[in-house]
Write a structure and sequence with these properties.
Layout: E1 2-7, H1 12-23, E2 28-34, E3 39-44, H2 48-57, E4 61-64, H3 68-71, H4 74-106, H5 118-135, H6 137-148, H7 154-176, H8 186-210, H9 212-219, E5 224-229, E6 232-237, E7 246-249, E8 258-264, E9 266-269, H10 271-274, E10 280-282, E11 287-288, E12 293-296, E13 299-305, H11 311-324, H12 330-357, H13 362-375, H14 378-383, H15 386-398, E14 401-403, H16 406-412, E15 417-420, H17 422-426, E16 427-438, H18 443-454, H19 460-471, E17 480-485, E18 489-494, E19 497-502, H20 504-510, H21 515-526, E20 530-536, E21 539-550, H22 554-563, E22 567-571, H23 576-586, E23 590-592, H24 600-607, E24 613-617, H25 623-628, E25 631-635, H26 640-645, E26 648-650, H27 656-691, H28 695-698, H29 704-723
Parallel strand pairs: 15-22, 15-24, 22-23, 24-25, 25-26
Antiparallel strand pairs: 1-3, 1-4, 2-3, 5-6, 5-7, 7-13, 8-11, 8-13, 9-10, 9-12, 14-26, 16-21, 17-18, 18-19, 19-20, 20-21
Helix pairs in contact: 1-12, 4-5, 4-8, 5-7, 5-8, 6-7, 7-8, 7-13, 8-29, 9-15, 11-15, 12-13, 13-27, 13-29, 15-27, 16-27, 18-19, 22-27, 27-29
């Protein structure tokens, strides 16, 4: 997928025109244009030159999207646009105030003027209106340019409305001199432009706020790094850091790139990546990440990932890409926007002709037609989806939930089944000691003997016992004659005593095991734990149970999923007894155990009978299932291949964030529907009202100035409604 910056777009009709022009190119398989971010995503084999030429031929500008540094300039562009609109507005209001005083104050209410000549008054009004039109010439250049290219846009409607009022008033002045002051619409021509500029300014300000989350993330990117060159500390720009460089970070400084801590230690604030406020302790060998902040201690690290390869850059790119894509729900609005402006222009012409046929004056009929032009708002339709997507992707990123595409934001809220991997998703993925049951020895002595035996073993269960001994400062003993008995257990010699450890079946071959011990061992196994029995010489000395423990929030997260009306399924390669025990503990609805990675896709397809399916996993063996599901959700601490295959990435590695992702998606979808409803409702009610349909029924009449005011507010309201998503709390 290639990304391009698009310039010259003013409304949804513009984005629809660009999208249509590029989609028509041979070799383009997919094209989506985002009005909010002025960006375009293109998939296919068409060349960069062909794509840019197609955009230019449609009447707009295009350039290949640059690096992350260039993307970060978007906030400056928004700021510049807003500043320009403010200047235009202030100048327009100044001249409009004088014009309104003359046209309304003097002509209608008799306020004093130094000049009494009606012709001079008419000419002054014309000059003032023309000045406002020159100040806002962008509407005319963009509008008529679109019209000449066969792609009229919102600016076309505004330009036609303002120009029609001016041309009619100019003609009346030429034909009747100053004897028709009450028939002049110079103030309408200027007022329309000024009010639309107000709306554009409010819209630009509000649109700027939609990228606040992304801009705040970008602002955390460090600008410099302190690296060691020739034995000396040197401060260099981050862009000059090379893979393998040794860099140092003092308390209060940002970590410049991803790396590994080689010496020192301290606590690092990783909230920029995970949203987690508590600092994370770092020791030698720990990974450190760009844009996180060293809160205490001196860190000396080796750079492993630099520039756009860092985790932080990946997050920025993911959020930017999601905002640049288009959600499926936007397609309906796009279709309407593509024909909206020509239809409105036709309605305006029909309105003018109809009122003329009904015997009204040219001025009256023209006012109705102009009102239709200036009240219609394709922008509200075009912004309904992208602003909500932009805000949602930013809010999600702030809380450690990364949606890769706009479609993922929309579809995540529609899922009916969540399939969950067990190891690393529901459980920690790291076995630990759960029960110590000594017989004839103390707890400490049993652990010491067991850890001594397991010290030379590479089995995860044995490593869990060794880790437990280390954590509890229990020293291990020297061993001799260590031997692995495949499928049974281990044996060795410790202080002239023969030690055996392993399964119940293996230990039962060596020493007698009571029925009571057997019952205890079976009970442990039924709870999803793995019991390891130990004996010394001919004496049974106890059992240590090891299990992959359930994460603290797993049961609550699964309960929350069920409260959302979602069916939960465990999909694991583990044995059925262990899987069932874990599922029972956390409240999962259904278990599919002993499923090989290659067969997980078939299982996902089976679950689709209940509705859309999401797969949550973290390992390499989950990649196929993540891709096969309607939505793949990867636990952030998992394998890179799982993260690459997923549609949503949870940076916290917490199952609770899967619930938050679904809730955020549903809230976003609801917000988009609200935006689309009000955008359609506004135009469906506003256009007939402006055309005068309600005059015979309810005597409701709308002047062009009120139409322009309504249009300027409509887009602003859509953007402000989307900004409510910032209040979302996981």
């Amino acid at each position: 997928m290639e990304q391009y910056n698009i310039t010259g777009m003013g409304c949804a009709a513009c984005s629809a025109r660009v999208e249509k022009a590029v989609s028509a190119l041979e070799g383009v398989t997919e094209c989506s244009v985002n009005l909010l971010t002025n960006s375009m995503n293109v998939c296919g084999t068409a060349t960069e030159e062909e794509i840019i030429s197609a955009v230019v031929a449609a009447g707009y500008g295009a350039s290949k999207k640059g690096s992350e540094a260039k993307r970060s300039d978007s906030g400056d562009e928004t700021h510049t646009e807003t500043a320009q609109l403010v200047r235009r507005l202030l100048l327009s209001v100044g001249f409009l105030a004088v014009l309104m005083y003359i046209s309304m104050g003097h002509v209608m209410w008799g306020l004093a003027l130094p000049v009494k000549s009606p012709l001079v008054i008419a000419l002054v009004e014309m000059v003032l209106a023309l000045t406002v039109m020159v100040i806002n010439s962008k509407f005319f250049t963009s509008g008529f340019k679109g019209l000449l290219h066969g792609a009229p846009n919102m600016d076309t409607l505004v330009a036609l409305g303002s120009a029609s009022a001016f041309v009619y008033s100019f003609a009346m002045t030429v034909l009747h001199g100053g004897d028709c002051l009450h028939e002049l619409y110079f103030e309408s021509a200027a007022m329309i432009l000024t009010l639309i500029t107000v709306g554009k300014m409010l819209e630009a300000r509000a649109k700027g706020k939609t990228t606040d989350a992304l801009k705040s993330l970008m602002s955390l990117a460090p600008k410099t790094a302190t690296v060691i060159r020739d034995g000396k500390e040197v401060t260099v720009p981050v862009s000059e850091v090379q893979k393998g460089d040794i860099f140092v970070v003092r308390p209060g400084e940002s970590i410049p790139c991803d790396g590994v801590l080689v010496s020192g230690g301290g606590a690092v604030d990783e909230s920029a990546l995970t949203g987690e406020s508590l600092p994370v302790d770092k020791t030698e060998g720990s990974k450190v990440y760009a844009a996180t902040i060293n809160k205490s201690g001196f860190l000396k690290c080796e750079a492993t990932h630099i520039g756009e390869d860092t985790t932080f850059s990946g997050i920025i790119k993911m959020v930017s890409d999601a905002a640049a894509t288009k959600a499926p729900i936007a397609k309906m609005a796009d279709k309407v926007s593509g024909v909206f402006v020509p239809v409105v222009m036709a309605i305006a012409v029909v309105t003018f002709i109809a009122w003329m046929l009904l015997g009204q004056t040219v001025g009256y009929a023209l006012a109705r037609g102009i009102s239709v032009l200036v009240i219609s708002c394709p922008c509200a339709l075009g912004l309904a989806t992208p602003v909500a997507i932009m805000v949602a992707s930013g809010v999600g990123a702030k809380h450690g939930i990364l949606f890769k595409t706009a479609a993922a934001i929309e579809e995540t809220g529609k899922i009916k089944v969540v399939a969950l991997d067990k190891t690393g998703t529901i459980t920690r993925g790291k076995p630990s000691v759960t029960d110590i049951l000594p017989c004839g020895v103390t707890d400490e002595e049993l652990v010491k003997i067991a850890a001594s035996l397991e010290m030379k073993s590479e089995h995860p269960l044995g490593r869990a016992i060794v880790a437990y001994a280390s954590e509890n400062s229990i020293d291990v003993l020297e061993t001799e004659n260590f031997e692995v008995l495949v499928g049974k257990g281990l044996k060795c010699t410790v202080s002239d005593s023969e030690i055996h450890g392993g399964s119940l079946a293996y230990i039962s071959e060596i020493v007698p095991v009571s029925d009571e011990v057997k019952a205890t061992v079976n009970a442990l196994a039924s709870e999803g734990k793995t019991p390891l029995l130990f004996c010394r010489n001919s004496e049974y000395i106890g059992t240590i149970a090891v299990a992959d423990t359930v994460k603290e929030d797993s049961a609550d997260a699964i309960a929350a999923l069920k409260s959302l009306g979602i069916r939960t399924v465990m999909l694991t390669g583990d044995n059925e007894r262990t899987a069932t025990a874990i599922a029972k503990r956390v409240g999962i609805d259904e278990v599919k155990a002993g499923v090989l990675p290659a067969n997980k896709a078939a299982a996902i397809k089976e679950f689709s009978a209940y509705g859309k399916v999401a797969m949550v996993g973290d390992g390499i063996n989950d990649a196929v299932a993540l891709t096969s599901a309607d939505i793949g959700i990867a636990i952030g601490a998992g394998a890179d291949v799982a993260i690459d295959a997923a549609d949503v990435v949870l940076m916290h590695s917490s199952l609770s964030d899967a619930v938050s992702a679904i809730k955020l998606s549903r809230k976003t979808l609801k917000n988009i529907r609200e935006n689309l409803f009000w955008a359609f409702f506004y135009n469906i009610i506003g256009i007939p009202l402006a055309a005068g349909v309600f005059i015979p029924l309810f005597a409701l009449e709308m002047s062009p100035m009120f139409g322009a005011a309504a249009m300027s507010i409509s887009s602003f309201c859509v953007v402000m409604n989307s900004l409510r998503l910032n209040m979302f709390k996981p």
